[in-house]
Design brief:
- This protein is an alpha+beta fold and about 500 residues long.
- The chain is about 60% helix and about 15% strand.
- It has a four-stranded antiparallel beta sheet, with no helix packed on it.
- A hairpin with a 2-residue loop joins strand 7 (about 125) and strand 8 (about 125-130).
- The longest helix has about 70 residues, at about 165-230.
- The chain is rod-shaped.
- The two termini are about 35 Å apart.
Length: about 500
């Protein structure tokens, strides 16, 4: 009997990647697990699914964050500054001339010092000398700005941002749906991995019983041949031929036992249990594994319904929508932006009461308009790049649809082939049983040789092994067909 160690190794590798191993056993040793229980354990313990659930939460938070852009934002900014020097309006004391009203001239004029002899204004160094001046000392216009405290509370309400806020809200909404689709698709992958590991254990358990039966057949034949040698109706060569076959069967039984242990470890790992957990499966001791009733390979397939149920295709569709909105975001950079701005600013010392050392401030309201004029094609090229990425994503979506069509057809044909193979193996099984019975009777009557009996036993082993593979393959093809059709429930 030839084992599929490559399949077991693949299941182990997938288990190590997909499953979560808890520090404490989740199933008691000796428990009997059904397929539904194994699925439930895998879904609840898988780290990738837990991470996907957190990604869904994160996408929801990002959606709420994008919605907040519709609402006014309120911010506070404040600070402190130390200045080395004071602020002075003059470099020295100032003497400012004073004007008086003249009735004669009907206006204001300076009172200048006049020469008593001539009555003309006196000049010193080319400058007239006023009779009266206003004295402004430098100290009066010197302000202490060593320690300055300032702050502002601002309110900003977007009015028109070129459609950027609307597009970002749609992007985050699609991103949340995308995260959910990825989580659902990952759940189906886990279910498929669980089913493959589960039925691999069932298959190897059935082959273990078959190998034990084959060993017992050869052991019985070896005993009968030894008795026939004593009676002189068989040769030593017949005994050696049977013993070689018996030893080979025992080696195969050992391989089956080892493969069964590895398959149980793989299933435990997929289900999130420690790999040394001892358990049995509800279907592994069944006398006859019947084919699932859900296999309907001749039923018509509506591909549009398949597209609607496929979460991976839904993820690509959401990707197209996201890129479409990204193009709108890029286009918004070429459009005007308008926002309403309100603020209350204050400082200490303040400028409203002659630099007094106390807090004072004022309200202000206004609008801010930004119109992009010329950026040497930078914004336009950004928009064209986003449009090109959208088209590339649409092509990827179309290609995925074609691959899904092919995948569904292949899975349907394979499921139909599995059903037909199972039926043929059942026919061969009945013939192999009858052939072995006739060979045993002929050997007892002396009309059949040892080689004839071993050939019948080998044919019986092959027929039973192929029947086990065919029955298990029907289950695996059924779950795979459900997966590609998008009807796999979890």
């Amino acid at each position: 009997m030839k084992l599929r160690f490559t399949v077991i190794s693949a299941i182990l590798s997938a288990a190590l990647t997909l499953a979560a191993q808890n520090p404490q056993p989740v199933v008691a040793d000796g428990s009997t697990l059904t397929l539904a229980q194994c699925r439930e354990l895998a879904l609840s313990n898988n780290k990738n699914l837990r991470r996907g659930a957190q990604e869904v939460k994160a996408a929801g938070y990002q959606k709420d964050e994008a919605f907040a852009a519709y609402l006014p934002s309120i911010d506070f900014a404040g600070g402190y500054m130390y200045n080395q020097k004071q602020l002075s309006m003059f470099d020295s004391d100032q003497m400012l001339p004073v004007k008086t009203f003249s009735l004669e001239k009907q206006g204001y004029e300076f009172n200048l010092v006049k020469n008593p002899m001539t009555g003309e204004p006196l000049q010193v160094n080319g400058q007239y000398i006023p009779e009266q001046v206003a004295y402004l000392p430098k100290e009066a216009l010197t302000y202490d700005i060593h320690n300055v405290f300032f702050g502002a509370v601002t309110l900003t309400q977007p009015i028109f941002m070129g459609g950027k806020i609307v597009a970002m809200n749609k992007i985050t909404g699609y991103a949340e749906e995308l995260a959910k689709s990825k989580l659902n698709n990952a759940s189906r992958d886990v279910i498929y991995a669980v089913d493959a590991a589960y039925w691999q254990v069932v298959s190897l358990k059935a082959k273990q019983e078959l190998a034990e039966s084959y060993v017992n057949l050869l052991d019985t034949l070896s005993h009968n041949v030894s008795l026939m040698i004593e009676q002189g109706v068989a040769t030593r060569s017949d005994q050696l031929t049977v013993d070689v076959k018996l030893n080979s069967a025992r080696v195969d039984l050992t391989k089956v036992n080892n493969g069964l242990v590895l398959s149980r470890m793989a299933l435990a790992q997929v289900c999130g249990m420690p790999i040394n957990t001892q358990f049995t499966l509800a279907d592994e001791n069944a006398a006859d594994i019947t084919a699932p009733e859900s296999v309907q390979t001749d039923a018509p397939i509506d591909m549009q319904e398949v597209y609607d149920r496929r979460y991976d295709l839904r993820a690509l569709e959401l990707g197209v929508k996201i890129y479409e909105q990204k193009a709108k975001v890029a286009r918004s950079d070429m459009m005007p932006n308008l926002a309403l701005v309100g603020a209350y600013s204050f400082s200490n010392p303040n400028l409203f009461d002659g630099f007094k050392k106390r807090f004072n401030g004022q309200f202000s309201v206004g609008a801010m308009l930004t119109i992009p004029i010329w950026h040497w094609g930078g914004n336009y090229n950004k928009y064209r790049s986003a449009k090109a990425q959208t088209e590339a994503m649409r092509m990827e979506l179309a290609n995925a649809r074609e691959l899904i069509d092919l995948q569904v057809r292949q899975a349907s044909f394979k499921a139909d082939e599995a059903v037909k193979t199972r039926r043929m193996t059942e026919v061969n099984l009945a013939k192999a049983d009858e052939n072995l019975r006739c060979a045993d009777l002929g050997f007892r009557d002396g009309v059949m040789t040892v080689d004839n009996v071993m050939e019948a036993q080998t044919a019986w082993l092959k027929a039973h092994s192929e029947n086990i593979d065919a029955r298990i393959d029907v289950y695996l093809c059924d779950v795979y067909l459900s997966k590609v059709l998008g009807t796999l429930n979890y």
